[in-house]
Automatic annotation (TrEMBL):
<dbReference type="InterPro" id="IPR055462">
    <property type="entry name" value="DUF7034"/>
</dbReference>
<dbReference type="Pfam" id="PF22933">
    <property type="entry name" value="ComC_SSD"/>
</dbReference>
<dbReference type="InterPro" id="IPR055463">
    <property type="entry name" value="DUF7035"/>
</dbReference>
<feature type="domain" description="DUF7949">
    <location>
        <begin position="1027"/>
        <end position="1060"/>
    </location>
</feature>
<keyword id="KW-1133">Transmembrane helix</keyword>
<feature type="domain" description="ComC supersandwich">
    <location>
        <begin position="1081"/>
        <end position="1290"/>
    </location>
</feature>
<feature type="transmembrane region" description="Helical">
    <location>
        <begin position="1318"/>
        <end position="1341"/>
    </location>
</feature>
<dbReference type="InterPro" id="IPR056645">
    <property type="entry name" value="DUF7743"/>
</dbReference>
<dbReference type="Pfam" id="PF24893">
    <property type="entry name" value="DUF7743"/>
</dbReference>
<protein>
    <recommendedName>
        <fullName>EGF-like domain-containing protein</fullName>
    </recommendedName>
</protein>
<feature type="domain" description="DUF7035">
    <location>
        <begin position="662"/>
        <end position="780"/>
    </location>
</feature>
<keyword id="KW-0732">Signal</keyword>
<dbReference type="Pfam" id="PF23034">
    <property type="entry name" value="DUF7035"/>
</dbReference>
<keyword id="KW-0472">Membrane</keyword>
<dbReference type="Pfam" id="PF23033">
    <property type="entry name" value="DUF7034"/>
</dbReference>
<dbReference type="InterPro" id="IPR054484">
    <property type="entry name" value="ComC_SSD"/>
</dbReference>
<dbReference type="Pfam" id="PF25820">
    <property type="entry name" value="DUF7949"/>
</dbReference>
Length: 1359
């Protein structure tokens, strides 16, 4: 329906709105409202009022044709669908109505007269006079968009044309282009340049409604630029390239340098009177000292001035001014012509050859084929290797081969805007195909089965393209047939739309082609009066849906991550209100956005049943700049940006990282020189080229590709470099043998990449995006001048060939589409170039030709032989059941004098050994595998994709390279995919061969790549199996048993809700981080003194056989009070010591935190409550020099409890699995008092969450004291370790003397406590998190565990 009651539109429907179908007795018309929801839910968006878009389905009961008119129509109604005689029409009606209430309708005109109808009463409203009731009070900062703030306007409808205008205080504004809740907008601000001092203390945001520019809304917000008088530290900058006085356009140029001690000043680059902010321009270092690169492009003649600028005392200060001059290049005239050279007629197609000539081949743009005036084929490029048949790259003669189905003679087609006519008709087809039905069936997480029922009268269905607007969403063609024929059939494709690179979008336009070039279009979201279906779990990206679907909670498994030396494996958890748990989700991180693949940091996830949240695992690279990593969460098709999420959820939504030496700078050339020179006179064999040096400081150079061409030879000389073969300077040698040709060599392409995927790229004659590897240099060409040039200008020829194939090739067979073709080339005067490997081409439909590169077989005197291995694509050449001959060509061979040759589809039939390539389609359909889902060595579920799977059972056979063959039955089969469950674990990664069998036969053998099983990022806690306590959870006053876990009521705490917290201010030890308590209390009228001690004892390196290789006892610590001067919830104390071993000092740091009030921390993906009076340890260990990669570490911690009672006394010790978490525990008990230690069996190791183990070592037990040691086993690591044990002291309801394994002493005077007098006491609770530093001191990690001082009171035990 047109309107939704949840969003008031002030519209009063008449009878039409009360009934879905309304029949007007006086005119016999039925009208149905087909308007999509919300599209008219907006304020006035034109100076004249509101533009409305209404879809009306109008039908005449009497079968009478009609037309529709109205005074408010913007233009004539658009017919979306209609019957043959126009007695039913689905019309798109566009109105502009004035502000106020208007009766919206139309007049229906027939041969017998006019009839007016009213559709609805619509109230067009201007935006409210007062836009906002509460101004934002601060500017936030994002390293992607700079300073921004969020406005929440009092809008109940969509504001279509919100604009920013120049404010009077020299700030520039932009509105962040993202859909949000109704009335919410993010505004970004940058200062404008000024030579005079300005008051930046306030920012006046000035906004306008584009439909009413006479009214301006001004909002003053406290400024974000600080009034700082201090000078910055050193600033260095230069402009690149700088080796010439003037440069030709198009030009990429760079202003680069460094800043030390920016001291909080706002800094930017001034260029062309514009402020270019620092965001995404910092490429190295840290906030105190960083490098920057500003990249610019110039396409016109210009004199450009630049300067580094900072704002001090509210005044812009320019330093290090630079300038650059550009001029346009000389005008080049490209000769370009085409001719229809020949045609060949086969059963179903005509193969035509069009010859082109060009004087500047390398500058030709791509072209397209228009067939019978319909755009029916994708763009093609005049590929030199597959098309050149004579000449060279300066004066080229080219073939363009097209296969045109034989319908509607004469057929009209155009290439390069040249029209051609071909009398190739076998039959006539002038009617377009029809879409009879379209369905989109979801299989969860945007995995969609598209099924289309299509018919055509003569030529048959060729292709269907589904569009959202003008963006292609997906396409199907004749190869996707599942039953019927291409005349009347069903076509199907399985698509995984959980893909940000090519996502599902609402389909509103469809283009349908047949083989005759007839085109049928369906527009505006309908086909044949039917709405084009959508994927059920897809959520349209409109304001109203952001009200329904909101992120309600969000957190990261790891945070405050040190990326100075190593990346991190992490996870994000979040909930969305009203979310479909079957939906997939994705997250995109914006890291090094200028010079990184935009999809490199995209990760996918879904609903995590155990976490009861959406979760996505992801990787963050090392050397990311200090700050918050910005991101965007995609819940298709809603997008939640981190800059918006932060305004609602604050600190927990931030992914916080820091690095001492960030690196967003790609590898670049630091030297470039031609050798032996850039101008060379030759008359014999010669070697020449370039020497280069590549620089990449922190991430490290990984890979490089450099391609060189000449003006006569576009066949690249390719040079690849890796870090493994790094010898600087890199050498790019080109050797010219047995030839003497004047030509100019130049670098065509450069690609350099570091180990974090940051790349630089250069393309000849193109404006570079981001930072170019030639940032500091102008390209250097090398001119070869031939002293005595050769007189040979004749190209070699194809002399003979052999084709080893079946007489008829079954192109819809999974196994019978392959054959080999061998051929020889000879020349009369020059040797054959073995560097120029020829290409073999087999024609398909239109430009869909199969092309493959040959391999060299042998070389003779002025001759060479080559071989092409050909495997035609499935149904290549068309769906014809009659035999069809395909054309063939061989192109791109050359002699050493760069005379290129090719043999086209006509001429090749005269070559000795030629035989026709005859194809057909068999009626016996057997399965054909095209791809599979991913599979790891862990095994699991596997989905196989392909064709002709049918809908009955299928069997999958897996053939390992060695070992047993596995056969698995399918659990679900559809025509185009089959699902197999419980694939067994495969011990070896690599390629495995699979084969699918159904009742019609076996498929092709397909190779799948088995990847290593990923290291699990999150280790979920083991859920408790039952509630504890007698009675359960301490009884109804203390707590409730929910989901097998006690939920305690304040003030009760503990696993069984029998404990209470007591506030004890700790005594800080200034010599070591050991924690002890000497606590006295009154119990049954007697003084009880308890002493506990938890200490960090030693660090041991353990050999693989379990023996100790090295042990170090901690003795000396450096103490520092690091408590913040700003009042916070905790006090912090730092302890440091070094472990000298293996030639390095392993630094151990302990940060002790005391929490005043209740708080929450996170560790290893879980959240923990911190009680008042909590002490928390953070222990970091810098890299350790392991003697073997098989060795491990042990961190030894000791604990003890002692009582000074003179009564009969017993001690007891036990350990096991903690009942409420994935942890081990140890309990040391003296009489009623226990020291309880819990050791979580997970750790953060090298920025990953991994499983660890704990080893308990029982110590001495006496009747009044007991002690224990625990070894926390740390796997071999490089940089970082974090662990999280905790301790508690309590009184137990069951005495130690009641345990059979207790140790007891002789009694003295007096008696022990009675059960009814017991109170619970927890003293000196210790929660200790252990963190290892990445090469440097690291104690900023905020989410470990704690030391707690508690008191427990037990409920009296029932008698």
């Amino acid at each position: 329906m047109l309107f939704n009651v949840n969003f008031t539109l002030n519209v009063k429907f008449l009878l039409l709105s009360l009934f879905l179908f309304v029949k007007f007795a006086d005119s016999n018309f039925v009208i149905k409202d087909r308007t999509p929801p919300y599209i008219n839910d907006k304020y006035a968006d034109t100076v004249s009022g509101c533009s409305l878009e209404v879809y009306a389905d109008i039908s005449s009961d009497d079968g009478v044709a009609f037309t529709v008119t109205d005074q408010y129509f913007i233009e004539s109604p658009e017919v979306v669908s209609s019957t043959g005689n126009n007695d039913r029409q689905l019309l798109k009606l566009q109105y502009i109505v004035p502000i106020g209430t208007t009766l919206v309708g139309f007049k229906i005109t027939t041969d017998t007269g006019d009839s007016p109808y009213t559709l609805l009463e619509y109230k067009c409203e201007a935006p409210p006079v007062d836009w906002i009731s509460s101004l934002p009070q601060q500017w936030l900062y994002s390293n992607q968009v700079g300073y921004y703030t969020k406005f929440k306007f009092n809008f109940s409808k969509r504001m279509v044309n919100l604009l920013t205008s120049l404010a009077p205080n020299n700030f520039n504004f932009k509105i962040f282009k993202t859909t949000m809740k109704m009335g919410e907008f993010i505004v970004m601000a940058t200062p404008a340049f000024s030579n005079t001092a300005l008051d930046f203390s306030s920012v006046i945001v000035q906004l306008q409604d584009g439909a009413n520019m006479t009214v301006t809304h001004k909002y003053a917000i406290p400024g974000f630029i600080r009034n700082i008088s201090v000078l910055p530290g050193s600033i260095h900058a230069d402009l690149y390239p700088n080796d010439k006085t003037s440069y030709l356009t198009p030009l990429s140029y760079y202003y680069a340098g460094s800043v030390e001690k920016p001291n909080g000043l706002y800094m930017y680059c001034w260029n062309k009177q514009k402020v270019e902010p620092m965001e995404n321009r910092m490429v190295s270092g840290n906030p105190d000292k960083y490098g920057f690169v500003f990249d610019f492009t110039e396409t016109q003649a210009a004199y450009t001035q630049l300067a580094f600028t900072y704002i001090r005392n509210y005044q812009s200060n320019q330093v290090i001014g630079k300038s650059i001059t550009t001029t346009p290049p000389p005008i080049q005239i490209f000769g370009y012509g085409s001719t229809l050279a020949s045609s060949q007629y086969f059963n179903n197609v005509a193969v035509i050859r069009i010859t082109f000539s060009s004087t500047q081949y390398l500058n030709l743009a791509p072209d397209s084929l228009f067939y019978n005036y319909a755009y029916i084929s994708d763009q093609f490029y005049l590929n030199p290797f597959t098309r050149i048949y004579s000449g060279n790259y300066k004066n080229a003669f080219l073939d363009v081969i097209a296969s045109i189905p034989r319908f509607n003679g004469p057929s009209i087609f155009s290439i390069n805007q040249n029209l051609y006519s071909l009398n190739n008709a076998d039959s006539t087809d002038t009617l377009p195909p029809q879409l009879n039905n379209l369905s989109l069936k979801s299989f969860g997480k945007l995995r969609v089965l598209i099924t289309a029922s299509i018919s055509d009268d003569v030529s048959g269905f060729y292709r269907m393209v589904l569009y959202s607007g003008t963006t292609e969403v997906q396409h199907l063609n004749y190869t996707d047939i599942i039953d019927g024929t291409y005349i009347v059939g069903n076509f199907q494709k399985y698509v995984d739309f959980l893909n940000i690179k090519k996502p599902y979008l609402p389909i509103d336009n469809i283009a349908l082609y047949d083989f005759a070039g007839n085109l049928k279009t369906y527009t505006n979201g309908f086909y044949n009066f039917n709405p084009i279906p959508t994927v059920p779990e897809f959520i349209t990206n409109i304001e109203q849906n952001y009200e329904i679907y909101q992120i309600t909670s969000i957190r990261f498994a790891l945070n405050d991550i040190d990326l100075s030396n190593i990346g991190a494996q992490n996870a994000i958890y979040f909930n969305i209100s009203n979310a479909n748990r079957q939906s997939g989700v994705a997250i995109t991180f914006f890291i090094n956005v200028r010079n990184t693949d935009p999809y490199k940091y995209v990760f996918y996830g879904g609903w995590n049943q155990q976490m009861n949240m959406f979760s996505i695992n992801f990787d963050i690279p090392s050397h990311v700049f200090t700050g918050n990593v910005e991101y965007s969460i995609w819940y298709p098709d809603l997008e939640f940006t981190s800059i918006d999420i932060y305004t609602t959820h604050g600190f927990s939504s931030l992914l916080r990282v820091f690095s001492q030496n960030a690196d967003a700078m790609p590898p670049i050339f630091t030297s470039l020189a031609a050798f032996p020179s850039d101008v060379i006179n030759i008359n014999t064999d010669i070697e020449f080229g370039w020497d280069i040096t590549v620089s990449d400081d922190n991430n490290g150079f990984k890979y490089g590709l450099i391609s060189v061409i000449s003006d006569l030879d576009g066949y690249e000389h390719n040079f690849t470099y890796t870090n493994e073969n790094k010898v600087e300077p890199y050498y790019m040698p080109i050797r010219i043998n047995q030839t003497c040709i004047t030509q100019i060599f130049q670098i065509k392409y450069i690609y350099l990449e570091d180990y974090n995927g940051v790349f630089s790229e250069y393309k000849l004659n193109s404006v570079n995006q981001g930072i170019s590897p030639l940032m500091k240099f102008s390209p250097i060409s090398i001119n070869l001048n031939c002293v005595s040039p050769s007189m040979d200008t004749i190209a070699p020829v194809l002399s003979n060939m052999t084709i080893n194939k079946e007489n008829i090739i079954l192109v819809n067979s999974p196994t019978k589409r392959a054959f080999n073709m061998s051929f020889c080339i000879r020349d009369a005067d020059s040797e054959i170039s073995t560097r120029h490997l020829p290409y073999c081409m087999v024609t398909g439909l239109f430009f869909d030709h199969y092309v493959t590169r040959s391999t060299l077989v042998n070389v003779g005197s002025k001759s060479a032989c080559f071989k092409c291995k050909i495997e035609l694509p499935y149904m290549h050449g068309g769906p014809w059941t009659l035999t069809t001959t395909l054309g063939m060509g061989i192109y791109g061979y050359s002699d050493l004098q760069l005379n290129f040759g090719g043999t086209g589809t006509n001429d090749i039939t005269e070559i000795s050994g030629y035989s026709n390539i005859v194809v057909t389609n068999t009626n016996l359909l057997v399965p054909y595998i095209t791809s599979t889902s991913t599979l790891t060595t862990d095994g699991g579920d596997l989905t196989v994709y392909g064709k002709n799977f049918g809908d009955t059972n299928a069997t999958l056979t897996i053939y390992p390279a060695v070992g047993n063959v596995y056969k698995l039955p399918s659990v679900f089969v559809n025509n185009v995919f089959a699902v197999f469950k419980n694939v067994p674990s495969l011990t070896l990664k690599g390629k495995y061969k699979i084969e699918l069998y159904i009742n019609t036969g076996s498929s092709n053998q397909f190779f799948i790549v088995i990847s290593p099983a990923p290291v699990p990022i999150i280790i979920p806690s083991t859920p408790p199996t039952q509630c504890l306590g007698t009675p359960l959870c301490g009884g109804p006053n203390n707590g409730d048993c929910i989901a097998n876990k006690c939920q305690c009521k304040d003030p009760w705490i503990g696993n069984d809700c029998l404990s209470q917290n007591i506030i004890i201010k700790p005594i800080i030890n200034t010599t070591s981080p050991d924690t002890g308590n000497d606590y006295k209390t009154d119990l049954d009228g007697k003084d009880v003194s308890l002493k506990t001690l938890v200490s960090i004892v030693s660090l041991n390196e353990i050999n693989k056989d379990g023996s100790i290789n090295f042990s170090y006892n901690f003795t000396n610590w450096k103490y520092t009070n690091v408590t913040s001067a700003t009042p916070t919830n905790n006090k912090e104390y730092l302890y440091e010591t070094d472990v000298p071993y293996g030639g390095i000092n392993t630094t151990v740091k302990v940060t002790l935190k005391y929490f005043h009030n209740k708080d929450t921390v996170e560790f290893a993906g879980e959240t923990f409550d911190i009680l008042p009076s909590t002490l928390k340890y953070q222990i970091s260990i810098s890299p350790f020099k392991f003697q073997s990669s098989l060795n491990t570490l042990q961190l030894i911690m000791a604990s003890s409890i002692q009582s000074d009672t003179n009564d009969y006394s017993c001690t007891y010790q036990e350990q096991g699995n903690s009942p409420d978490s994935d942890a081990d525990y140890v309990k040391l008990q003296v009489n009623e008092h226990s020291l309880y230690g819990r050791f979580i069996k997970r750790a953060i190791i090298d920025n990953r969450i991994q499983t660890i183990s704990n080893t308990f070592q029982n110590g001495e037990s006496q009747s009044t004291q007991i002690q224990n040691q625990v070894a926390i086993n740390i796997p071999n690591f490089q940089y970082l370790v974090i662990m999280d044990p905790d301790y508690s002291v309590l009184i137990d309801s069951q005495k130690a003397s009641d345990q059979s394994t207790s140790t007891c002493g002789q009694p003295t005077e007096g008696k022990g406590l009675t059960k009814t007098q017991l109170i619970g006491i927890i003293i000196g609770s210790v929660a200790i998190g252990i963190i290892a530093i990445i090469l440097i001191s690291y104690f900023l990690y905020k989410k470990s565990s704690s030391v707690r001082v508690l008191m427990i009171k037990l409920k009296p035990i029932p008698k």
